[in-house]
Amino acid sequence: MSVQVDKAWISSDQTAHQARFVGERGWVVSFLPGRTLTKVQALSAILIADSAAVALRLAPDVGLTALEAVGLVVLQPPWPRPAAHPYSTPIP
Q1: What number of helices (H) and strands (E) belong to the chain?
Q2: Could you tell me the superkingdom of the organism this chain comes from (predicted)?
């Protein structure tokens, strides 16, 4: 995932969505019509689009749609971390 930021555009190599600087009014994002954002918000939006593109590509590998996969990640609590065994080696 690579996001490029310059004075007028924010784009990604994972998605065709982009953000554009519109002067003092701020930034607009291709998938958020009618909203004007700060640069930080626009960057966050493109990072979300970037992540969505990855989810679209990977979700079918586990038999899910991207919406199902992201929804489960958000809604399902993670397992508690097990206590480390004194002789165990962590997996990087």
Answers
A1: 2, 4
A2: Bacteria
d(CA 89, CA 35): 49
When divided into structural domains, the chain yields a total of 1
Identify the H or E element spanning 14.
none
Question: pLDDT grade, residue 17 (50/70/90)?
Answer: very high
Q: How many CA atoms lie within 13 A of 5 on its CB side?
A: 10
User: Phi and psi at residue 63, in whole multiples of 5°?
Assistant: 75, 25
Rounded Cα distance between 28 and 18, Å, is 9
Inside any domain, residue 86: no
User: Which domain, by its residues, includes 33?
Assistant: 3-74
| Assigned domain for 85 exists | no
Q: What pLDDT is recorded for position 1?
A: 65
